[in-house]
Structure formats: structure tokens, C-alpha cells
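tool_call: predict_structure(chain=1)
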Amino acid sequence: MLRKETEVVISDNSGGLVGKIFQLYGRGPKSASSVGEIVRVAIKKAQPNMQVKKGQHYLAIIVRTKYGMSGQGKFAFSGDNAVVLLNNKKEPIGTRVYGNVSEILGQKGFQNVLSMASGVF
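tool_result:
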């Protein structure tokens, strides 16, 4: 469950390393987002000479959370909060996703993110 001002790891090869959530879509001002939901992220740390630069804003989809989530009667815990950056057409910017992603992404219509990931839980 991620709220505003939460720092997240960017889990793709677009060039961003760390971001901060500053807007949740489809939720109230004091609510939280979970895996498979779209948020707006500001880039706080980025690799040099890459497509994504520090200070830019992007749409992102949440792929992992530290908070345990329930899916089909099982709980999955992760070591970090991670997102994948999206363009305005809601397609991934990067071509590879690092780490495991949740199978809930497939149910929410993000099969392309699911297929680029190294593992699914």
C-alpha cells in the first residue's frame, strides 16, 4: 500500500533509479495504491546519458510492494517498493523489467510488462 511522498525503486532499464510518488489516480487524497495501479512519479535519481532525466515526471505502474498482498489466497512479500515507468499511451518506456512482478498485472491489462519481467510471483 503506497501513499503520496513514498520513495520507490524504478525497476526497468529506462535510466531512472529512484522516484517519489506525488499523485495517485482514481483515489481520494488520503488513500493508498497497491500493485497494478497507476501513479505519477517524479524522478529523484537517474543514470547519466539515458532517456529519463532527474526532475522529470512520468506515469508509472506499481509492480512490487513491501506490504504483503493477497492474491488467490496467498501472500507475497517483497524487499522494496518498485514501479515501471510508462509513457502517455500507458506503454512501458524501458525494454526490460528487473526483478519479480506480481501476476495481478496480467489481470489488470498489463501483459506487456508481465512478459518483460524476469520472474512472476
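agent: Residues 3 and 32 are 5 Å apart (CA to CA). Proceeding to next step.
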